[in-house]
Amino acid sequence: MFDKLIDIESRYDELTSLLSDPEVIASPEEFRKCAKAQAAIGDIVETFRAYKDVERQLDDLKDMMKDEPDPEMREMIVAEQGKLNGDSAELSARLKVLLLPKDPHDEKNVIVEVRGGTGGEEAALFAGDLFRMYTRYAEMKRWRVEVLSASYTDIGGVKEVVFLIEGQGAYSRLKFESGVHRVQRIPTTESGGRIHTSAATVAVLPEAEDVDVEIGPNDVRVDIFCSSGPGGQSVNTTQSAVRVTHVPTGLVVSCQDEKSQHKNKDKAMKVLRARLLEKMQAEAQGEMAQTRKSQVGSGDRSERIRTYNFPQGRVSDHRIGLTLHKIDAIMLGDLDEVIDALITTHQAELLKASS
Questions:
Q1: Beta carbons within 10 angstroms of residue 147's beta carbon
Q2: Which residues of the chain have pLDDT under 70?
Q3: Nearest to residue 1, comparing CAs of 103, 85, 100, 102?
Q4: Which among 4, 173, 302, 305 counts the fewest CB atoms within 10 Å?
């Protein structure tokens, strides 16, 4: 591990030198490339240097202990050694996590798809609640949210909503949200006061760029049609809604939220690229002999990952056995405690697999 850390520190110093090189400064593209590469290893180098500093202090204390006759001073040295040993162990564990293989998509923006599942109108209302939960979480993180496509029911539920979240580390924080989310509560439409169980599905896809997914000009068929709203109402009378079909795979994406045909096409292509990237990854993983045991859940959309029980005020994540009695706060976007627990478990599984 330490040979690797020394190499990373050398690379960091090299990049620091390059960032002050006039030739690199004169090239915005090269400067950005070096700055990004340096930032990617900055945490590792900072933690490694802190670890080396602690180890140096421990060596100094060991030397002091050899020549120190005063029992009171020796006691103080032992106490300081105990503290520094704790710091060393903590920094060593952090370095192991920082050196784990990085998900190449972690820093990407995400496209989130939320759909009402089993449970009729109540499932659509719950899908709307999940959509609001994620947008509020994004607001807390100061991320930008853009709705790409949405279909609502007559009483305000969500049949399907697809939205883009732009922000640093968005995919790394939200990628474990993919799956079936189950709700247990008394629907507002229920006169008898009985608890119903409904579900909504969530898919979290890294935003794909042109370099990630190549789509040829003849691979896509674009159809234009008139938009329509809830209950058959016309959203606008111009032919601005767009349906994009990826001919090789048969994937279809429709978008009608914008009045501009061009904007709708751009949004539809964003979703199409993300779905194609997901499909490519799923096929690649299917060909691998090793199963995805290192991941917290498979992310499969048929997998029930979480239950929101309103009468008991609790949220349970079934993958890691976590139950929190703070459903109101979670529905208002307070998701960090759940997400941090999922990430910690994921890292522990990766460490176990690599040891």
A1: 15
A2: 189-191, 209-212, 227-239, 257-258, 284-303, 355
A3: 100
A4: 302
Q: Give CA–CA dist 149/205, Å, rounded.
A: 15
**Do the beta carbons of residue 122 and residue 184 sit within 8 Å?**
no
The rounded distance, in Å, linking the Cα atoms of 184 and 219 is: 43
163, 144 Cβ separation under 8 angstroms? no
Contact 184, 200 (CB under 8 A): no
At 289 the pLDDT is 35
| CA 328 from centre of chain | 22
Largest CA-CA distance found in the chain, in angstroms, rounded: 92
Give the position of tokens 């949210």: 145
User: Residue 49 corresponds to which tokens in the numbers above?
Assistant: 């240097």
Q: Which amino acid is at 196?
A: H
Pairing of the two strands 179-185 and 304-309:
parallel
Rounded to an integer, what distance in angstroms lies between the CA atom of residue 290 and that of residue 350?
A: 14
- Give the C-alpha separation, 42 to 205, whole Å: 27
pLDDT at 303: 62
From the number of C-beta atoms within 10 Å of its C-beta (0-12, 13-18, 19+), residue 263 rates as: middle
Provide the 3-class DSSP secondary structure of residue 105: coil
Q: Are 177 and 150 in contact (CB under 8 A)?
A: no
What pLDDT shows up at residue 284?
60
* The dihedral sign for the CA sequence 164, 165, 169, 173: negative
Non-local (6+) Cβ contacts of 207 within 8 A are: 108, 109, 110, 111, 164, 166, 171, 270, 273, 274
Which helix (H) or strand (E) covers residue 316, if one does?
strand 314-317
pLDDT tens track for 102-157: 877 888 889 999 999 888 889 999 999 999 999 999 999 999 999 888 888 888 88
Q: Where are the beta strands (DSSP E) in 207-283?
A: 220-225, 241-246, 251-255
Axis-axis angle for helices 71-98, 336-354 (nearest 10): 90
